[in-house]
Amino acid sequence: MQTITESSNLFNPQTVQAASKKYVKAKMKLPKGYTRSALLKAYQGKPSASFIKASMKGMKDNDFSRIKAGESARDNKTKININKLTAKQKKELANFALKMINEARADLKLKPWKYSSGVQTLANDIAKEYTQNKRGINNGSHYVPGIVRACQKNGLNLEDNYVEDMAGFTSPTPKMTMTAMKKNIYFGLKQMMFGYVGSNEKGRNKKNNYREWEHAGDLFNTQGSKNTDGDYNYFGFSVSKNGKVYSMHFISVPTFVVNSSKYNLSFRP
């Protein structure tokens, strides 16, 4: 199941908390009780009550998407156009996402994911496929044909979606601050890590909103595979638009795919 956030809700006075500091560095920490063994059971469709409780705490404690403060004056002042992100801006956003992912992975004693120019190119091509074919997270599923075409274009012999996790948000305009965009990324990652299916922060106290941990299994390389669990991926990030909905493409290529002569025909991370 894909998740969608509404960017307007991130800055609704009813959902945004006042910050005690003007600037706050975003952090992502997994709470006690969020373990790989518990995640695996959730990934397999059998989350324990204690794991759901831990996930709820994770949504609460990781609050960067819920406060007014940005990371810096520069982020607050930097205006970006999501439809026309520069290569430098894409890399900055990818590295922000990667920092959040790796902070959480460190809590599980997992190897860090690595930013990759090759995967960034793949992410850009996947975003183009979504945009050109008028697809997005609001369609309710990954655009697998486009993902496959982009993978094959980049030298990956993959016939399904093995590279994309997706979240999204709505916005009436493509123009926003770097702070706002980072908060969208942060909230999307929280949704995926903690199995949360609500569209904003308001429903985080409802247990029935915690029920989808397939993304978490991807982000933490924990899917019950003896050969690949605990491994790490190469990472890139892109955004596409469909109507007023923006899809965030968290693209990662597993190490075992990169090292496989069967799946890797010419791809270079």
What can be said about this structure in brief?
With 269 residues, the chain is of the alpha/beta class. It has ten helices and seven strands.
Structural account:
The chain is globular, with a radius of gyration of 17 Å. It is built from 10 helices and 7 strands. α3 packs antiparallel against α8. The chain has 269 residues and is α/β, with parallel strands linked by helices. It has a 5-stranded mixed β-sheet with strand order 1-4-7-6-3, with helices on both faces. The protein starts with a strand and ends in an 11-residue tail after the last helix.
Low-confidence runs (pLDDT<50, min 5 residues)? Answer: 1-15
Shape: globular
Structural class designation: alpha/beta
User: Beta-sheet strand percentage?
Assistant: 5-15%
The helicity comes to: 25-40%
Largest sheet report: 5 strands, mixed
Give structural attributes.
single chain, 269 residues, alpha/beta, five-stranded mixed sheet, two-stranded antiparallel ribbon, 39% helix, 14% strand, globular
Strand and helix map with partners:
Blueprint: E1 5-6, H1 7-10, H2 36-43, H3 49-61, H4 73-77, E2 79-81, H5 87-107, E3 114-115, H6 117-132, H7 144-153, E4 164-170, E5 175-177, H8 178-194, H9 214-219, E6 233-242, E7 245-254, H10 255-258
Parallel strand pairs: 1-4, 3-6
Antiparallel strand pairs: 2-5, 4-7, 6-7
